[in-house]
Amino acid sequence: MNTIQKLTEHFSKLPGIGPRQSKRFVYYLLRRDNKFIEELAELLLELKKEVMVCALCNRFFAMNSSGQKMCNICADQNRDTHMLMVVAKDIDLENVERSGVYNGLYYILGGTVAILEKNPDQKVRIKELIKTVEERSKKTGLKEIILAFSVNPEGENTMHYISEIISPLALKYSLKISALGRGLSTGTELEYPDAETIKNAFKNRA
Amino acid sequence: MNTIQKLTEHFSKLPGIGPRQSKRFVYYLLRRDNKFIEELAELLLELKKEVMVCALCNRFFAMNSSGQKMCNICADQNRDTHMLMVVAKDIDLENVERSGVYNGLYYILGGTVAILEKNPDQKVRIKELIKTVEERSKKTGLKEIILAFSVNPEGENTMHYISEIISPLALKYSLKISALGRGLSTGTELEYPDAETIKNAFKNRA
Amino acid sequence: MNTIQKLTEHFSKLPGIGPRQSKRFVYYLLRRDNKFIEELAELLLELKKEVMVCALCNRFFAMNSSGQKMCNICADQNRDTHMLMVVAKDIDLENVERSGVYNGLYYILGGTVAILEKNPDQKVRIKELIKTVEERSKKTGLKEIILAFSVNPEGENTMHYISEIISPLALKYSLKISALGRGLSTGTELEYPDAETIKNAFKNRA
Amino acid sequence: MNTIQKLTEHFSKLPGIGPRQSKRFVYYLLRRDNKFIEELAELLLELKKEVMVCALCNRFFAMNSSGQKMCNICADQNRDTHMLMVVAKDIDLENVERSGVYNGLYYILGGTVAILEKNPDQKVRIKELIKTVEERSKKTGLKEIILAFSVNPEGENTMHYISEIISPLALKYSLKISALGRGLSTGTELEYPDAETIKNAFKNRA
Hints:
4 copies of one chain form a homotetramer. Chain A is of the alpha/beta class. Helices cover 49% and strands 14% of the residues of chain A. Chains in contact: A-B, A-D, B-C, C-D. Chains A and B meet through α5 and α9 of A and α5 and α9 of B.
C-alpha cells in the first residue's frame, strides 16, 4: 500500500468515517499547503504528551506548565464538593458544563454497561468509582451522587448497575443517589413522546 | 378536470400529502374493489353526522345511541375534576391518555398562538377556556390547570399567553397553574440536549 | 369501532400512510366544512363509474360523454403505431408522457415480476401482451417494443421475462425489442454511480 | 487554546466535519494507543513528500522508488492514447477506473466552473488542458475528448465552457468531443426521472 492508501485506511478508523469520506480527507489534505499538514502532524504528536487523564475524575485535560495532575474542574476551589455527577464520557461532561447549571464535581465512568454484559467491572471504572465515593465521603462530605446517562436501555442499565453497587456505601455515608430528571425536552411535540416521558413530564410539572 | 384529476386535487389537501402521493392514492383506489371505496365514501358522509364536539372540552367524539353531548372522558364519573389539562389539539390529548398517567379533565384550545399573532383570541378558544375555568372553579372545585404544549417557541408562547390571561382567575379561585415538566425524554443522548433541557433535567433529578 | 376509528383504519390502507397520519387525516376532515367532505365522498363514488380501463393498453382513463373504450392516447390518430412501450403501471406512463419525447403507444403490464416468482403470468398481463403484440404486428405494422422499467432487480427481471416470452413473436414479425437507455441521470455526481451506470454512460456518450 | 482545542479546530476543516464530530475524533485518538497516533502523524508528513502531481494528467499519485513523474495510468503503455477523458477531480477518475470500462487517458481539470464565474481560467486548468490536447493531437494521435462531469448546472456549465474553448482545436485536429451518455442510472424508478433523463433514456434505448 502506498501513503494515500495507508492514510485513507487510518482515517477510516475515525468514528463515523467510511472509506469514501476518508479518501476525501486525503485529497483535501493534498490540496492544502504543507503548513497545515505539518501543524496537524505536530498536534497529533503533542496530543498524548500534553493531554493527561485527571487523577480524580478521569477526564482528559491539556496539562499546562504547572504540571498539575487534576483537571481544571477538580482543581477549582469554588466547585461544590458535596455533589458528584457520574457520566459515561468526556463529551457528556462537556454538554452538562455548557448548560452552566451544575457546579459540583464529575466522575467519568469510561463507558456504559450493555444489558447482557458479563464482566461490567472490566468495561467501566466501577472499582475506581467506589474508591472515589469512599474517599470523597470521608474527606469532602459528599452528599449526593447524580447518575447522568443517556435515556436508552444501555444508559438505564448502567444507572441500575451503579445504583446496586453503590447502595451499601450510600447507606453507610447517607448519600442520596439521584438520576437526571425526565420530561419533555426542547423541541418535543406533545403528540409524539412515549408513555414514560409523559409520565415523568406530568410528575415533574411545575 | 375529470374525476381522477379532481380526486387527486382533493387528496392533495390532506396534511402532508403532495400531488404525487395523492395521485398514487387514486390509482390505489382504482385497483381496489368497489366495496372498499363505497365504505370509504359512506364513512366520510357519516363522519360529520356522527362526530360531535364535546360541549365541555371541545374534543371530537363519535356520538353513540344515547345522544350525549359530552365525550367519554368528560362524562366519566371517575375522572378527577380538580385538574384541567389544556392541550392544543385532539392528538395531543390522545397521546397523554395513552400514557395512562393522568386522570383529570382536558380542555382543547384548538391551536397555538404564534409569537407575533395580533388577535390570539380569534385563533384559539381562550374566551371559552376562561368561562370553563370559572364554571369548573365554582362547581367542581378545580384546583390546578396544567398547560400541556409542545416545547417550541409557539408552544411556549401559548402557555405564556394563557398564564397571563388566566392569572386573575387563578388568584380569585386559588388555582395552581403548572406546565408539563421538562427534562431528558426517552431516547435522548446526554451529549446533545440544549442548556434548557439539561437545566430542567438537573432540577428535576430524583 | 366508531366512525373516527373506522375511517382511520380505512385511510391507513392508502399507500405510504400509517396509523398516525391517517388519524391526522380524520381530524383534518373534522375541521373542514361539510362541502369538502361531501365532494370527496361524491368523487369517490364517481371514480369507478367514470373511470374505465382502456381496452387496448389497460390504462385507467376517465370516460367522457362519447362512451369510448379507448384512452385518449390509444384513440389519438397522430401517435406512431410502430412503437409499443411496455411499462409496469399508470404512473410510469404518465412520467414518460410528461417528458414529451415519446409519440408511440403504450401497454401497461400491471406490475413487475419478482425474481423467484413462480406464476409470473398470474401477476402481470403477459398473455394479453402477447395477444396485443400479435394483433398490432398484423394490423398496424408494429416494429419495436420498448421495455421501460425501473432499474432495479425486479424491473430487470421483468424485462428479461418479457424478452424471453416475446422473442418468438419478435422473430416472426421482425420486431426490435429495446430497453430504455442507461447512463447518468439528472443530479448524478460522477464520483458515485456504480460500474454498470458508468459503463452505459461511456457506451452512450455523444 | 490547548492541544485538544487546536486539534479539534484542525479536524473541523476536513470536508463534511463539524465541531462536534471533530471533537469526537480527538477523544477517539486519546483513547487509542500511541502507536496509532504516531503512524497517523508520520503518514501525514510523508503524504506531501511521497505524493506527486502527475505531469501529464494532474492526478495525485504516490511516487515509487524509480522516481517517475507520471502516474501509473499515464505511464501504462497499454492505455489507448486516442481518448482523453476530462474529469473535475481525482475521485471522479477513480470511480470511472473502478468500472473497468475505459482504457484511455485522463485529464484532471481541478474543479468545475460556476455559472457566473468571471475568471474560469483561474479556477480550473483550462490553459494546461489546451496545451495537453495540442501536444497529444500532434504526438499520440488523439481522436476523442470525453467530457465526464456531474449532471448538475455547474457540471454542465463546465462542459459547455470546455467545449467552446476546445472547439477550434477540435476542428484543427479533427477531434470528436463527447460527453458521458445520459439515461436511467442504477436504482432509478421510472415514475421519478425528469424529462431530460427520460429523453436521453429513450434516445439511447438499445
